[in-house]
Amino acid sequence: MTIALNKAGLSASDVTFQKAMLERDDGIMVYDIEFYNGYTEYECTINASTGTIIEYDMDMND
What we know:
Blueprint: H1 2-8, E1 16-25, E2 28-37, E3 40-47, E4 53-60
Antiparallel strand pairs: 1-2, 2-3, 3-4
């Protein structure tokens, strides 16, 4: 989760975690992480073996 928070420029105390799951995606184990900061939703997929961010998305919600 630290990798996703660093990418977003936030700390754990700044966000509300919605989902943090270890799952298999195309044969690779990944962490699928979703969290909120105010009205902004962050989604991050991280390779569980290497710690490399595979996908990152940030959306503003009303």
